[in-house]
Prior knowledge:
Blueprint: H1 7-24, H2 29-37, H3 43-49, H4 55-67, E1 71-76, E2 82-87, H5 94-114
Amino acid sequence: MAKKIDQEELAAKTKALQDTIYVIGGKWKLPIIYSICNGNKRFRDIERSIPGITTRMLSRNLKELEENKLITRTVSGDMSVTVEYEFTEYSKEYGNLITQMIEWGKKHHQIIVEK
Length: 115
């Protein structure tokens, strides 16, 4: 039998789940995180790796990820400016989570297709 959770603990866990969804939710944030995780550091490389994303949406989502301390934006160079995005130490734990989500998605797709 499952352990009963008191209402305060349930409310706290629900709030934590809502915070997580707020930070990584939406259509584009996980694909962006996954793209950076796979070595795409520059804006155009990230954009090319995500079918259907617009420049505006990528820019907006990168700013939100930066505001939430999941990525850093580094500008370098004098004549030819280079902008690169990288994970913060804090966000590296998302790698395993995303891998698990991909595996779950594959299994889910197989179950749906078999119907």
